[in-house]
Structure formats: structure tokens, C-alpha cells
Amino acid sequence: MHHRGRQMRRSLGTRLSVRKNRLKRLSGNVFRDCCKAVALFSIIFVMTAALIYGYSFAVSSPYFRIKGTIIRGCKELTEKEVMALAAVKPSQTIFSVNLKAMARRISSHSWVKSVAVGREFPNRLVIEVQERTALAMCKMGKDFYLLDKNGAFFKKLDANDDVDLPVLTGYSREGRMNAELLQKTVGLLKRLTLSKSFPTINNVSEINLSEVTGLSLITDNGFCLKLGFDNYENKLHRLLPVVTALNKKNIKQEFFNIDLREVNNIYVERRGVHEPAERAGIKKGFRT
User: Fold this and answer.
1) Domain 64-131 is in which class?
2) Which three-class secondary structure state does DSSP give residue 279?
3) Is the pLDDT assigned to residue 26 strictly greater than 70?
4) Residue 30: CB partners within 8 Å, gap ≥ 6?
5) What's the rounded Cα separation, in Å, for the pair 273 and 54?
6) pTM, whole model, 2 decimals?
7) Is residue 233 within 8 Å of residue 191, measured between CB atoms?
8) pLDDT tens string 139-192
9) CA of 268: how far to CAs of 225, 226, 258, 271, in Å?
10) Residue 116 neighbours by CB under 8 Å, 6+ apart
11) What is the pLDDT of residue 98?
């Protein structure tokens, strides 16, 4: 009995010792984990403070204050107009400017197709503007609207637009646009921009749409080329022999009606020199 009691006390002491050691190890692990957590939070705090200080310094430092803006890609727009839309304040640095907001403001202009705004260290902004390309201007009511190569109207013509473009008339009647023939006309004009023989896009003064006879292309030397409703490219290819024949006969090449609508016949006759009524009102400086 006495021996068994000693064994029980020894076993109990051993278990208590094991528990005590286990608690020590656990408390040591918890302490080390706490120290690691405190160290990690301290590092994060220091780094965050450093970043905040660095950002504050960059935003307000005179070293990064904007001293110039480079603007590229302007043809129809002026640099003054771009700068007015950019709205750069005298005290701003290259880091305090909201580039996306600036790009949105510049993109709001009708002539702007896309814009990219960037920083050039240490103190300049760079604005890259891509403008729309006007292909023609179309008369709608009493006004003229600029048309791009996709056939989209993007701007009402005003006195500040210094453009020399073909005029499209007869496409809008009673407020309704003939969209199908407008797109065909856009395709014709795009082909003429690539043409190396008469007529090129630079020779086109006006294209008039008649619901009865189709398109009539009027050139700057007074030719009125009647093209009908389709197959315009092939019809214009047939014009070269006519021009050649006029040259051989020393006939002055101006003010002719040349009807190319029929496949097997071409009709040529002199035309009056009066300006079409629908082109009245186009301001001086535009091709008529």
C-alpha cells in the first residue's frame, strides 16, 4: 500500500510537470506570435506613414509643379482650346492632376476622337489628341453638318471650322435622312480619296441626291456626272474616254452634263452655269 501510494504521487507529479512545461511552451509561442504581430503592424504603420508623407510631398512639392504642357495631334483644334478644356491650375503638380477627368473634358469636344494624357517627369504634362477626319458636309434644313468616314454626323458647321469639303445635298427631306444612299455616298467618297485619276476627292464640289435620278457628282470645273443609284465606281471608270475625247477636240472641259447611268451609252451635253439653288448659303471659303 505504501509503495503504491508513492507511485501514484510520483505519477501525479510527472503529469503536473508535463502540464507546466506545456503551458510554458504555449505561453512562449503566444508571446512570440504577439511580438511578430506587433512588429508586422509596426512595419505596416511605418510604410503607410512613409507613403502618405511621400504622396503629400509629391502632390505639394514645387519640384513637381507643372511648368509646361506638350500638346500633339491638333489640326482643327488649337492648343489654346485644348488647354481651356484641360483646365490646369497654376498651383497643380503632375501628381495632383486627375488625368482621367482631364481626358474626359478634352474628349467632350466634337473634333476629338480620342485623347491620351500622361506625365513627363519632373514637371510636364503630355496630351496626345486624335481628331476626327471630316469626309464631307451634309445640308440638313438650313444648316450643314460634318460627316466622318464612318458616315456619322459629329458636328454642326460653324464659322470657326476652316474646312474645304464636298457638300452633300438632297439627302435630308422633310426631316428624314436617306440613310441607305448616304452610306453608299460615303463609300464612293472613300474610294475617291484613294483615286489617282479624275475625279479625285479634291475635284468633288457637291454630290446631289435626287429621288428620281439618283446621285449627281459636281466637280470643281463644272462637270455634272449623273451616276444613278448604284455601281458608282464602274461608272466613273467609263469617264476617262469621254475626257480623252474632249481633249482631242480641244473642247474646254467645263460646264458639261455627263450621264453615266446607262451601261451602253454615255450622254454629254453643255449645262447652264447657274449655281444650284440648294448650295446657296454656304459661306465663303468652302468649296462650292
Assistant:
1) alpha beta
2) helix
3) no
4) none
5) 74
6) 0.72
7) yes
8) 999 999 999 999 999 999 998 888 999 999 999 998 899 999 999 999 999 999
9) 10, 10, 5, 9
10) 103, 127, 128
11) 95
Distance CA 95, CA 63 (A): 11
Model pLDDT for residues 251-282, shown as the tens digit of each residue: 776 789 999 999 889 999 987 654 444 444 44
Q: Tell me how far apart the terminal alpha carbons of the chain are, to the nearest angstrom.
A: 130
Q: Which three three-digit cell numbers place residue 160?
A: 470657326
Residue 65: DSSP 8-state: B
3-state SS assignment for residue 173:
strand
Cell 500638346 -> residue: 71
φ/ψ (deg, to 5) at 58: -65, -40
Please, are residues 257 and 226 in contact by the beta-carbon 8 Å criterion? yes
Residue 4 has pLDDT above 60, yes or no: no
Question: What phi and psi values does residue 35 have, to the nearest 5 degrees?
Answer: -65, -40
CATH superfamily of 134-279: Cell division protein FtsQ/DivIB (3.40.50.11690)
Q: Are 210 and 216 in contact (CB under 8 A)?
A: yes
The H-or-E segment that residue 72 falls in is strand 68-72
Residues 193-245 have pLDDT tens digits of 999 888 999 999 999 999 999 999 999 988 999 999 999 999 999 998 888 88
Structural domain boundaries in the chain:
2-60, 64-131, 134-279
Instruction: Return d(Cα 162, Cα 15) in angstroms, integer.
Output: 99
Three cell numbers at 124?
510636364
Instruction: List the grid coordinates of 287.
Output: 468649296
* Residue 277: DSSP 8-state: G
Q: Tell me, what's the pLDDT at 172?
A: 94
3-state secondary structure of 113: strand
Residue at 100: amino acid letter: K
Cα(185)–Cα(169) distance, rounded to whole angstroms?
11
